[in-house]
Amino acid sequence: MPSSRRMILGHVVTDLSSKMNRTKKLGADVMETPLNRCLNTFDITLLGVGHMVGAGIYVLTGTVAKEIAGPGIVLSFLLAGITSLLAALCYAEFGTRIPKAGSAYVYTYISVGEFWAFVIGWNIILEHMIGAASVARAWSGYVDSLVGFAISNATVSTVGEMHEQLLGRYPDFLAFAVCLVYACLLGVGVKGSAIFNSLFTIINLSVMMLVICGGFYYAHIENWTVGKGFLPFGFSGVVAGAATCFYAFVGFDSIATSGEEARNPAGSIPVATIVSMSVVTLGYILVSAALTLMVPYWTISASAALPEAFSSIGLNWAKYVVSIGALCGMTTTLFGSLFSLPRCMYAMASDGLLFSFLGSINQKTQVPLTNLAISGISSALIALLFDLEKLVEFMSIGTLLAYTIVSASVIILRYRPPTTEETAATGVGAVVTDDSSQSGAELASPQSDTVELAMAGRLKPSFRWLSPLVGNCERGGAVSGAVFVFTCFSTALCIQLQFSSDEMRTGIWWTVLLAAFFIICLAGCLLIMVAHQQNTVGLRFKVPLVPLIPALSIFCNVELMVHLQALTWVRFIVWMALGLLVYFLYGIHHSKESDPTSSYSILMTSSEAGKGKWGSMHSSGPLPILSPSEEKTAAPTKPPNDISVDDKRPIIDEEEVPQ
Fold first, then answer.
1. Which GO terms fall under molecular function for this chain's record (predicted)?
2. Which terminal residue of the chain, N or C, has fewer Cβ atoms less than 10 Å from its own Cβ?
């Protein structure tokens, strides 16, 4: 590397470091203390595994196998796992691109703008709040079953039953207490709670191995062949079971949420995401197969499937071991929800979308204690009053919507052109010299990266025939429009498959023609995406086969959303109406979207860092590639007018650049 480039990059790094120090002082009530970077890859992997392997495997398996899919639950978990893995790959790329707390909320903020980010963040709050409450309710139910239902009987005899359709049968005071106790344990600090989580996760995985080995040892293959066979509810039951089983995978986004507390987020988050998703998906498939081979699916206990299955074959000691594993698994899931919820609230408050006191960090524990207290109390109240079944069915819709927008955002950012700020942050393409002392290998990487940055968002030469259609669009604009159209036609096709499947099987012409039209439109949208150049400079982890894998993730998420009940959609609309009131009455007036000292402008390496408005589709134009002669006469770029006084200093003083 020539001395001029080393000096330039050195000053870039120095100035970025000083700016990062200034962005920690966004206000007296926001981001006073940074989150503590203390989690390694092993901690984050076990955090994701622990968040996923909980109530989903110990409670959901029995319900889906007995009432929805039968032995086909194996395929349901496989389908739900593949859908989640597609979204997880998108999360992993974003986690390396933007290592900040807030997960899907932050990703959406950077790629498609503030409003949609608030929509996602508001739904993530609901997801984790209901997730914590549902797991606490399941935890209480397992303990109650171990003591012969003495707790529920005593509660009913003391305070009576709640005769309301939307509420549980009785107030669950044990679930209420569990939420508060675990919230207090998380308040001791990230590292201490991570050690506790890792211990319980290892116990949980050991019990799962016991279930798998014992189940296959006592397996009877006729349990998959007698009666109506392997798919007693048909393939529609498999898909409906997958929509329900999706609840068992929603915890992996806690990995991305921990990005601001990871020691090496660019390396840890992709590894932790892929490893945890693979382990959990394989574990779910093997456990569900062992359960349905061990006992007939119609005899499975919906509330305590695994312990009762071992008890039915005479292994009473295994019943208690599995119950201990279930409690450990649900404990880690509860920890995962209560870990992620305060950090999402913290990220939204830091941007001014939620009340400012939610953006403070405790200086001693380096944990958002105020958010943690609110999260614990809110989840405890929900667990006290509502039944587990009503909580679970309301949880998936917001999660699926978040996964859909994250997958779309991966495509949008891959084809969006970079700005000068991104180039300065990555140190690629800022200066191209003709220093003859450099070898070809040294020149290849900077020059190839510079060409990629300059061509990002443009049509590939082999697709110039599309210029009359998309040639007048801004760089990246055609792809963004294609993603939106693809999502709309995916929704239309999934709705038709849901409500006109019988007509299509009988060959009614208009249904077949309409489906063919939707499929052709989807293929056309993918063609427009593929026809453009990508920008992958600086990404340590990249989703393979973009845009195919993110587009498939969008379609699968929409398909599962269509299978949710109508009442779930009604509840979702009510929750969103409440959130829009918060946004338009408070958030939009306190937003830091145009604040040039926002921490996003330093931490992220996407092309949005220098834009005047977040989520705007306007780019700053292609990057100039300077020849050696032009380099010497190039004038410094004038800073935009909306940059604060502290940031108007040039990153590189003129006298420091060798002429």
1. amino acid transmembrane transporter activity
2. C
CA distances from 655 to 282, 504, 629, 634, 658 (A): 60, 73, 18, 14, 7
Nearest alpha-carbon partner for 512 in 531, 493, 530: 493
The mean pLDDT of the chain is 75
* pLDDT for the residue numbered 285: 92
Which residues have CB under 8 Å from 42's CB, separation 6+? 198
> Are 659 and 7 spatial neighbours (Cβ–Cβ below 8 Å)?
no
Average pLDDT rounded to a whole number, residues 568-579:
86
CA distance 33 to 26: 11
**Residue 30: alpha-carbon gap to chain centroid:** 24
- Whether residue 508 lies inside any domain: the answer is no
CA 229 from centroid of its chain's CA atoms = 36
Chain centroid to CA 262: how far? 16
* Lowest mean per-residue pLDDT among 47-61, 101-115, 229-243, 436-450: 436-450
Beta bridge partners of 317: none
Helix/strand/coil percentages in the chain, nearest 5: 70, 0, 30
Spacing of C-alpha 185 from chain mean position: 24
> What is d(CA 118, CA 354) in angstroms, rounded to the nearest whole number?
9
Which residue from 127, 133, 131 is spatially nearest to 399, judged by alpha carbons? 127
Indicate the pLDDT class of residue 261, thresholds 50, 70 and 90. low
CA-based end-to-end distance of the chain = 16
Judge whether 529 lies within some domain: no
Counted domains in the chain: 1
DSSP string, 234-278: HHHHHHHHHHHHGGGGGGGHHHHHGGGGBSSHHHHHHHHHHHHHH
Whether the bond into 639 is cis, omega within 30 of 0: no
Sign of the torsion formed by the C-alpha atoms of 60, 63, 64 and 68 = negative
Beta-carbon contacts of residue 25 (< 8 Å; ≥ 6 apart): 31
Domain containing residue 302: CATH number:
1.20.1740.10
Choose among 127, 353, 306: nearest CA to 212. 306
Query: What pTM was estimated for this model as a whole?
Result: 0.71
* Distance between CA atoms of residues 462 and 261, nearest Å: 44
Q: Is 83 exposed, middle or buried (0-12, 13-18, 19+ CB in 10 A)?
A: buried
The per-residue b/e assignment along 490-500, b for 16 or more CB within 10 angstroms, e otherwise, is: bbbbbebbeeb
Tell the residue number behind the tokens 């296959």, with chain if given.
Answer: 216
350 occurs within a structural domain: yes
With 0-12 CB in 10 A as exposed, 13-18 as middle and 19+ as buried, what is 229? exposed
Structure tokens at 39: 């989690």
Rounded Cα distance between 320 and 345, Å, is 38
- Report d(CA 418, CA 169) in Å as an integer: 56
Structure-token match 């290998």, residue found: 441
Place of tokens 């120090």: 21
Q: Which residues contact 375 (CB under 8 A, 6 or more apart)?
A: 128, 129, 132, 183, 338, 341, 342, 345
Give the DSSP H/E element, type plus range, for residue 213.
Answer: helix 190-217
Summarize pLDDT for 366-406 with one digit per residue, the tens: 778 888 899 999 999 998 988 766 676 677 777 788 888 88
Is residue 514 in some structural domain? no
**SS3 (DSSP) at 532:** strand
**CA–CA gap between residue 260 and residue 247 (Å, rounded):** 25
**Boundaries of domain holding 392:** 36-156+168-188+195-412
Look up tokens 């009604």; give the residue: 570
